[in-house]
Structure formats: structure tokens, C-alpha cells
Amino acid sequence: MTKTKDDFKVDTWNSKPEKGSAGKTGLWRTFRPVINHEECTRCEMCVLYCPEPVITLNLDDPSHKKGKIIIDYDYCKGCGICANECPQDCIEMVKETEFIEDDKEEK
Amino acid sequence: MVTTKEILRLPEPILPGHAACAGCSSSLGLRYALKALGEDVIMSVPACCTSVWQGPYPKSAITVPVLNIAFAAAASAASGISAALESKGKKDTTVLAWAGDGGSVDIGLAAISGAAERNDNMIYVTYSNESYSNTGVQKSGATPPGARTKTTPKGRVGFPKDISLIMWTHNLPYVATACTSYPRDFIEKLRKAQTMDGFKFIYLLAPCAIGWRFPSEKTIEIGKLAVESGAHILWEAIDGDIELSRLSKRYEDPAKRKPLEDYLKDQGRYRGIGGELLQSYRDYIDHQWAIITSLAKIKQK
Amino acid sequence: MTVSKNLPKSIGHDEPKTLIISGNYAAAYAAKMARVEVVAAYPITPSTDCVEKLAEFVEDGVMGANYIKVESEHSVGAALVGASATGARTFSSTSAHGLLYMAEMVWWAALARLPVVMSIVNRELAPAWSIWAQTQDSMSLRDSGIIQYYCKNAQEVYDTILMAFRVSEHAHVYMPSLVCQDAYILSHTNTPVELPSQKEVDDFVGTYNPEHFVLDPKNPVTHSSLSYPVHYRQKRFNIMDSTHRAKQIIKDVCAEFKEKFGRFHGDLIDTYGIDKKTKHIIVSHSSIAEEIEISVDMLKKKGYDVGLVRLRVLRPYPDEEMREVCKDAETIHFIERAPSYGFKGVIAIDTMAALYEGKNHPKAFHHIEGLSGMDVTAEYAAGLVEKDLETLK
Fold it and tell me: Where in chain A are the domains?
């Protein structure tokens, strides 16, 4: 095609894959899932059914030989599926207001 | 059959922080679908919940190329993508048309029927929340009898269309039904479809907490109750031979099904719906079982 | 420009040849020789012949395009959008209601920046059913920015389709095109059309290599998701920039075509009998304009100082060129097929808007003629202009 002298480019809608496309969706939560890691057997049902997904099994965590279940609270919307599906019943949905002081400390 | 552990070890194709409602089974369904199909995929997505929850420009939650397209056009855009890939010698790339029930059963019906009749090479998944959820939950051709939507505020009258049976009459290499609550079954069906040439269709029941008005944590539970009560039948047809899936086989016997009330009790769209409308839903379920079980007796091979 | 080995075949054009063919067939040969990769087509009178000819080429094994026999024109548009987005050169042919049914996807192709090229046989809209010539079908889509050419004979249809691929696929443009011809008058009458050799066409048209976006799993992008108003502004102004740049690009491509193939049909406009001092300018389009060339000769013999401007490209509208041609004109006479109900003819409206910004505002006469393919003879057109000029006395 003809060589062009200027740097005009046709600009169309190319969205690139990236986390947080709708922002920090953790801000949507009214309830936060809290895991009881002692009772947790690392069955990963929560990882399987999370629609975001924000739950992963961190195999390198030394606290347990099978690793530790981590929830990314930056994006967790608090839907509660993980708590509802957990076969050990070890995830509790706790009101976000309980964490206001913690969040303040973190900042 | 793929195991849960295998599914869990597959790379995550959906990036969190997208715009789906909390507990959305459409985002969960696409997560499973892309785990099943891998990275060499191009998607055709018409106007539907997915075209919004993927997130606004300039970021996207979906890690494969996506062509968002007009409401009626998912199947024909996918036909075009498929033809271009073939023309360029890239037949291995999977074309995935991912559409809601509205874009498949109603406004998209001509296109999906045309693409199916031509046996154009793609996997077409209709993820159904049994309404036009994206625009605020209005009635679609897939809305079950008795269900309340914004355009059927007193409960839907009449039977819905069964798009999977409509697809079955198109002589396709693969037609199946699935549900987001059963990832192993869904992923297995997708992988089977991916090995075949031609037009493969999967109808995915995707319970919608907002539209069906149940608490978001029950998304998986409600999907299971749909199958356990017999309201949603899991089956697949390879080259037209229908077989009930293992998860639905035991519910062929109505005595083994959970009561329909168990499935409906947590769904606000059915609160206060009784009498004739509820009976019409029972009739519809019996009607579906009768059709599927008698069609399953026709073995074409 | 070299042709990649993966391009579809086009057999039977080792040497240039002249065929006596219709405008429909001329369009089909152009698509074939341009090595179109994907065709999605649906029959509609009177563009059906083109659709059938393409199918014949493919089934005879002389054209390597992937031909999708879609079930409606809306699916034609959608399939071409999908294929073009995947990096394929695409083509189709339609008319009237088919084009209107596809209108949503024509707009989509334009706003998505996909260089789909289509042959349009301009036909009257219903009710009532008519199969004859009128240009509202394609003209009604002009606001989308789709590039529109109006041809006066089958040779121009063939040549313009080749040029349309070059313009649409230019890295500064990426807009779809419609190459339009009048129903029956061009689509179904056979005239000599010179076809170059395949090699000459390959050298001129080249291959489609999109730089702006393509669906490719190796570099995934999501196209056209929900977007906020602030982003619309930049994308839409980019379309305005591109369509403005397309004017010069069209001129350059037409000049290149003239040099390589020895034929020139005008670029944005085509003139006949115009010189710097022409006082009375007739503005027309499509096949009527070819007839009016004879009217111009007749009127000149009678001593009238007239000339013809054939508007060849409706979008991007050649405002500077029209102002230049009309700068000394006293009167301007629009003879066109396309009314814009509620105002005047489409070409009259656009031209008057262009002339408003110039110093000279010639007196305008408006004639909507040739609706539903009614014959506009040279005598009749000359008579219209004569009557107009009588009123000045």
C-alpha cells in the first residue's frame, strides 16, 4: 500500500484483556466471604464455582501441606456462591461493615 | 470424562473485576467454556449480557478475540469468521458463537437456522437465563410457563420454544443441553463438539439471580434443582442419535424427580404463581420428557 | 505488489480480453479477479445475476472464494463483517430491500472500519413492488460514511470495484464501499467490457493486510464492547478524518488506474463539455448522466453555454471540486433519480450545501426524473434545461 508521510492511524474499538475491566468490583460487596482455614480441606469447590473468578489455591503457602485458599477481595463481589457450595461449611458471609476498621488500618 | 481437578488446573480465561452481576452464571459458563476450548478460539457475541459484562472499552475480561455484533447476527457473523479462517487455511481455530436465549431463539432464529442448515463450522452455545436479561428481564421465546418477567408480570402464558429440538431437526453432527451447575458435563460436551466438523449446538441453562429473583449464593443450587426436578433435561445427540446424559437418566422416572415446588420455591419469578399457570409448567415438563424419550428411540446410525 | 500464495485462485485471465457482458457480470468478474476471499450473497432482483455468476465461478473451480449462501441479506452483512474482521477480503451484491434489510450491518461495517465492498444495483423501494431503477436505496445510507460510487456504464462498474478495494483497504481509510449501477439499464444490458490480465489486476489491487484490527488468537482483542461517551468522540472524529482523506486517495487511485489501464471515468466528479467559463451547469448521476452528455451536445448546437457534471462519488462528497467547477456558473440544473422526501433531491441538497460555502451561488433548478427507471432521453433532458433557461429571459 502507499507509503504515508504522516502518522495518522485508523482508530477502532480494540479492548485489550485486562483485570478489573469494570474497576475494583470488590467495592460492590455488602457481605464478604471469610474462610475458616483450619476447617478448610482444600477441596476447591469454591475455586470451581466462583463466577469472577477470584478464588485460587495457593500451593506455595506454608500454612498447610495442601496450600491455602486465597480470595482476591479487590474484585470479590460477595455473591456467596462459595459459602453456599462449601462442603465443609467453613466459609461465612460476614457484613462488610465489620471490616471498616480493618480497611482503615490497611490504608 | 474430564475430572474436577483437571478443570481446576486449566488456565483461567476470564479476568476478574468484570461487570457481571454478583453470582452471574453467564460469566461462570464462559469461564468453563473457554477452559474447555483453549486459547485458539474466536468468539462472536451478539447483544446480550456477555456483551456488557465483558467490561467497557478499553479493557476486556475475555482473553480470546471477541467480535461483538448486532443482536440478530451472532450465527451469521460466526459463519463469516469461519469462512475467512478456512480461506486462510486456519481450520484449527475454534469459532465460538456465544449468545443469550433472545439472540438465539427469537431475533437470532433466522441466522442460527441458516448457519445450522449450511452446517457452517462453529460451536454455538445459547446460554439461557430464560428471558431478555440484558435489557432488564423481559419475556423471551425461552421463558418457561408461569414465569414472571417485566412483560409478563402475571406469569407467562403458553409453552416456550425448545431451541435444542429445533437445532436437532437440522441434522447436525452434535446437539446437546447442559447447565452451569454441572461443569464436568458441560466441558465434556464442549470438548466432544470441538473434535467434530460442522455446526455444533449446546443449550446451556444459566440461572440468573437477578432475573429469577433468588439470592445470588443459590446460583449453583438452583441449576441443580432444575435438573433434579426434571424441569431441565440434559441430553446429547451425536449425528442425530439422542441419548439422555447420565445426570438426567434417573429423572426419566417421574417418581425419582424432586418436586417442582423445590425448584421454584426460592425463585421470586414464581412467587404466588399457582393454579393453571403452574399446571401448564408441569404439562410442559411432561411434554418435553415425552418428546425426548421417544426421539431417543430413533437410532439413525 | 506481489500476491501471496494463500490467496484464492482466479483462473482464465492470462491475457486481457473484451467480453460483451452486463453490469452484473462485470461486477462478478471484478470480484473474481480481485481474488475476494469470502462472498456471502443472497438473490434479489435485479442483482441476482451477479450472485449467480459468482456461484458459477466458484463451482466451476475458476474462483477460489469461500461462498456462503446465507438465508437473508441481514446475514449477508453480518457474515461479511465477521469475515472482514478476520482479515479476509469480502464482497457481495444486492439491491433495494436487500440493502435496507442489511442496513444495520452496513452501518456496522462502516462504524467498525471494515473495508467490505458491495455491488449495488439501484432499484426502487416498495410499496409498490418495482424492479426498476432509482437510487434512494444506497443514497439513504450516506450518513454512515460508507463510500459510494455511481457508475454510468458496465466498464466503469468493473473498473470501480477494483479501485474500491484499493481505497477501502487503504491504511488511512478502512471504510466499506458501495459501487452502484442502475437497475436493468446497466445491470441487464450487455456492452463491451475490457478485462485486463490477472497479473495486471493482482499488481494493482494487491492483498488485504489490515493494520488497524484483526481477530487473531495470537493477539486477542475484544471489538466493540460497551464504551463510554468520551471514547466515542475520538473514534467518530477519526471516521470523519478518514472519509475526508479518502477524497484525495480516491483521486490518487483513479489517476493510478488511468496510468496503468488507460481508462479514466472521472474521480470524485466527471465532467463533460465544461470549461472555465461554463455558465449553465447540469448536475446528474448514474446512467442518466451518460444520456445527458448527448443533451449537452444538443444544447451547445443551439447556442446554449452548458456543461455536465456527473457526481461520481456521493460520499465523501466532493465539495471543493463542485465549488471549483461552479465558481462562475449562473445556473445549476439538477436532474436526478433520488428524492429526499420532505426536501429536494439528494444530490441537490448536498451540492447546495457545498456551494453555500463558496462565493458563487448559482440559481438552482430541481428536476426529479427517471423514477422507477422511467426513461430519461437526451431530448427530454435537453428540453428540461431549455425550459429552465427560458424562465430567465
Answer: 36-106
Asked whether the beta carbons of residue B56 and residue C225 sit closer than 8 angstroms, the reply is yes
Q: Choose among B166, B183, B33: nearest CA to B98.
A: B33
User: How many residues in total does chain A contain?
Assistant: 107
Minimal-distance CA residue of chain B relative to C102:
B73
Type of residue at C315: R
CATH code of domain C270-390: 3.40.50.920
Residue A3 pLDDT > 60: no
Residues in chain C with CB shorter than 8 Å from the CB of A13 are 112, 213, 223-225, 227, 235
Say if residue B65's pLDDT is above 90. Answer: yes
Cell match 431437526: residue? B169
CATH T-level assignment (fold) for domain A36-106:
Alpha-Beta Plaits (3.30.70)
Whether the model pTM is above 0.90 = yes
B11 grid coordinates: 488456565
Question: Facing residues of C156 across strands?
Answer: none
d(CA B37, CA B124): 12
Give B225→chain A minimum CA distance, Å: 14
Nearest CA in chain C to B88: C6
pLDDT at B299 over 90: no
* Segments in chain C below pLDDT 50: 1-3
Neighbouring CB atoms inside 10 A of C105's CB total 29
The most distant pair of C-alpha atoms in chain C lies apart, rounded to whole Å, by: 72
Q: What is the 3-state secondary structure (H, E, C) of C97-156?
A: HHHHHCHHHHHHHHHHCCCCEEEEEEECCCCCCCCCECCHHHHCCHHHCCEEEECCCHHH
Shortest distance between the Cα of A53 and any Cα of chain C, in A, equals 19
Q: Do C17-261 and C270-390 fold alike per CATH?
A: yes
pLDDT in tens, C9-45: 999 999 999 999 999 999 999 999 999 999 999 999 9
Contact A10 C211 (CB under 8 A): yes
CATH architecture for the domain at C17-261: 3-Layer(aba) Sandwich (3.40)
User: With an 8 Å Cβ cutoff, is B138 touching chain C?
Assistant: no
Q: What are chain A's partners, defined as 3 or more CB pairs within 8 angstroms?
A: B, C
Instruction: Quickly state the pLDDT bin for A62 (edges 50, 70, 90).
Output: confident
What contacts A97, CB < 8 A, 6 or more positions away?
Answer: none
Instruction: Provide the chain A residues 44-103 that lie in CB contact (below 8 A) with chain B.
Output: 44, 47-54, 57, 72, 74-75, 77-81, 83-85, 93
Find chains touching chain C: ≥3 CB pairs under 8 Å. Answer: A, B
Mean pLDDT over each residue of chain A, to the nearest integer: 92
Cell numbers describing residue C262? 488507460
For residue C26, give the nearest of C260, C177, C182, C191 by alpha carbon: C191
| Beta strand residue intervals within C109-146, DSSP E | 117-122
Looking at residue C4, its pLDDT comes to 54
Residues in A closer than 8 angstroms to C227, CB to CB, are 13
Residues A23-40 have a mean pLDDT of 96
Q: Which CATH number among 3.40.50.12780, 3.40.190.10, 3.40.50.970, 1.20.1440.230 corresponds to the domain B4-295?
A: 3.40.50.970
pLDDT in tens, B172-214: 999 999 999 999 999 999 999 999 999 999 999 999 999 999 9
Per-residue model confidence as pLDDT tens digits over B242-294: 999 999 999 999 999 999 999 999 999 999 998 999 999 999 999 999 999 99
